[in-house]
């Protein structure tokens, strides 16, 4: 039985844990025989040098002030109706916001005084939202479109940026629209615009600046792809090798023949009586799109076994990766970089009131260049209230679960934050089992007494302080995932630019 099953409450039933496989790497010498001294971001491993990219500019999620608000203390921020803001984190009835124009000040503003502008472009006929490059090309090359037809879509690699896809001379060209540190839009850094509409209007009237003309928006109705079916014939998938076996099924590496790509397929066992419930849950989650979440690609739910098709991550689970020779030589810089990615993905779920309920290293998947994505939404719930109460038949991974969830089955985003603290412990200890040697009952007793996991060896103090913040007894005192992402990004940037050493 796998570790995650051994650490669950013995009196409760299980759903979709233990599904991702353990990947094993060959035993090879770790020491670098070149004698060179390497900085934290350059390590010689069995697969070559692991290097992490320089800290990227944080994407700005745009908000607007709905009303005038006059600051009443130094902690608060004065805003005028229409001011563009970036919300750093939520604090009870307030948000910590930063102005994106003018003084660039930050401070607290009542939460009901601001509104997200994520979908502000839906009114434009050229805005096609979250479609991929291939779908954009198919739409633009359809017979009802001519040269000059174009659309704007959300970037596949940067969820807060956009891409112009334009048809010219029978081909489709793609131009990335980036965001500046103050939220401006630009294709060329020599020319920026306050809104996406202004940028599009400029290039419609100045085609030479872009290199291709922007004429009429793509002619095909947007509704035609918004409801594109996820159900695919299982004949489209060729299974190659089993990657692992879990409590309720296996994971296979496969080829999606019609799409010419490698995928991972979670296959539910036929004797699983809860298949219908699980498929409905996956259907509810198919609208989630973020670079730090494993992307659901297709379903084969007609007949048995049920296939759940997702993107394939080359290095397997973070749990297995940390235990590999490559994972064992990672420095704090690498681990903090990876942890920041997880926090970014969880912040996206937090905004949508989605509780994961099983956040742990076994449910984070790793690809090349230390790319990490949150996986396994088998226990996730989309909730309208701030707290979800599980049934007594649900099995709970106690070592990763907040006390209020383990004892009273009350799950929330804040219980996920507790789990994130344990995940950081797993990462900084290079895969050590939390509360090793203790039973579930002993773990709960220790937590009730105020005990917390000790700082792992070689763990920077500021990272351990973040863990302790995640383990605050009162759920409301735990940080948001937006705040955790911001903190980890900041620490990583300081390490990368050598202002602190680890």
UniProtKB/TrEMBL annotation:
Binding sites annotated in the UniProt record for ATP: 266
PROSITE patterns per UniProt: PROTEIN_KINASE_ATP (PS00107), PROTEIN_KINASE_DOM (PS50011), PROTEIN_KINASE_TYR (PS00109), SH2 (PS50001), SH3 (PS50002)
Principal location listed in the UniProt entry: cytoplasm
Compartment(s) of residence: Cytoplasm
Domain Protein kinase: 237-488
Keyword terms: ATP-binding, Cytoplasm, Kinase, Lipoprotein, Myristate, Nucleotide-binding, Phosphoprotein, SH2 domain, SH3 domain, Transferase, Tyrosine-protein kinase
InterPro entries attached to this UniProt entry: Kinase-like_dom_sf (IPR011009), Non-receptor_tyrosine_kinases (IPR050198), Prot_kinase_dom (IPR000719), Protein_kinase_ATP_BS (IPR017441), Ser-Thr/Tyr_kinase_cat_dom (IPR001245), SH2 (IPR000980), SH2_dom_sf (IPR036860), SH3-like_dom_sf (IPR036028)
Superkingdom of this protein's organism: Eukaryota
Domain SH3: 58-119
Domain SH2: 126-218
EC class (word): transferase
Catalytic activity from the UniProt record: L-tyrosyl-[protein] + ATP = O-phospho-L-tyrosyl-[protein] + ADP + H(+)
GO cellular component term of the entry, any: cytoplasm
Record-level Gene Ontology MF annotations: ATP binding; non-membrane spanning protein tyrosine kinase activity
EC code: 2.7.10.2
Family that this chain belongs to: Belongs to the protein kinase superfamily. Tyr protein kinase family.
Protein name: Tyrosine-protein kinase
Protein species of origin: Gadus morhua (Atlantic cod)
UniProt gene name: srms
């Amino acid at each position: 039985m796998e570790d995650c099953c051994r650490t669950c409450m013995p009196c409760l039933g299980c759903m979709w844990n233990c599904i991702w496989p353990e990947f094993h790497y060959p035993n090879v010498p770790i020491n670098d025989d070149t004698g060179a001294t390497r900085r934290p971001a350059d390590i010689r491993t069995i697969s070559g040098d692991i290097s992490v990219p320089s800290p990227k500019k944080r994407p700005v999620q745009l908000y607007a002030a709905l009303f005038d608000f006059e600051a009443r203390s130094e902690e608060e921020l004065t805003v005028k109706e229409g001011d563009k803001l970036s919300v750093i984190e939520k604090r009870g009835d307030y948000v910590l916001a930063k102005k994106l124009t003018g003084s660039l000040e930050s401070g607290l503003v009542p939460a009901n005084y601001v509104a997200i502008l994520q979908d502000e472009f839906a009114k434009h006929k050229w805005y096609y939202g979250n479609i991929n490059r291939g779908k954009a090309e198919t739409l633009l090359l359809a017979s009802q479109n001519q040269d000059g037809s174009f659309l704007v879509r959300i970037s596949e690699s940067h969820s807060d940026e956009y891409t112009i896809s334009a048809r010219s001379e029978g081909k489709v060209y793609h131009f990335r629209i980036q965001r500046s540190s103050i939220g401006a839009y630009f294709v060329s850094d020599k020319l920026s615009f306050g809104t996406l509409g202004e940028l599009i209007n400029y290039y419609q009237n100045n085609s030479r600046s872009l290199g291709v003309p922007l004429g009429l928006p793509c002619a095909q109705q947007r509704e035609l792809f918004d409801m594109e079916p996820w159900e695919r014939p299982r004949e489209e998938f060729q299974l190659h090798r089993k990657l692992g076996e879990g409590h309720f099924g296996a994971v296979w590496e496969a080829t999606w023949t019609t799409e010419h790509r490698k995928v991972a397929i979670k296959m539910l066992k036929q004797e699983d009586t809860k298949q219908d419930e699980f498929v409905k849950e996956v259907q509810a989650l198919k609208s989630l799109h973020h670079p730090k979440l494993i992307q659901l690609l297709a379903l084969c739910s007609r007949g048995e076994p049920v296939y759940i098709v997702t993107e394939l991550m080359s290095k397997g689970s973070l749990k297995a990766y940390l235990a590999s020779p490559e994972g064992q030589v990672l420095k704090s810089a690498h681990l903090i970089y990876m942890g920041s990615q997880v926090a970014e993905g969880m912040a996206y779920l937090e905004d949508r009131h989605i509780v994961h309920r099983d956040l742990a290293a076994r449910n984070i998947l790793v690809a090349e260049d230390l790319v990490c994505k949150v996986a396994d939404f088998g226990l996730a719930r989309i909730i309208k209230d701030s707290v979800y109460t599980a049934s007594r038949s649900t099995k709970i991974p106690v070592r990763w679960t907040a006390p209020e969830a383990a004892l009273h089955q009350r799950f929330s985003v804040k219980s996920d934050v507790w789990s994130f603290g344990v995940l950081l412990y797993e990462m900084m200890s290079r895969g050590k089992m939390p509360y090793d040697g203790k039973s579930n009952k002993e773990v709960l007793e220790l937590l009730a007494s105020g005990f917390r996991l000790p700082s792992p060896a070689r763990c920077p103090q500021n990272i351990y302080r973040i863990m302790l913040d995640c383990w605050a007894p009162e759920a409301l005192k735990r940080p948001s995932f937006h705040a955790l992402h911001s903190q980890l990004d900041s620490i990583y940037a300081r390490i990368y630019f050598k202002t602190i050493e680890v």
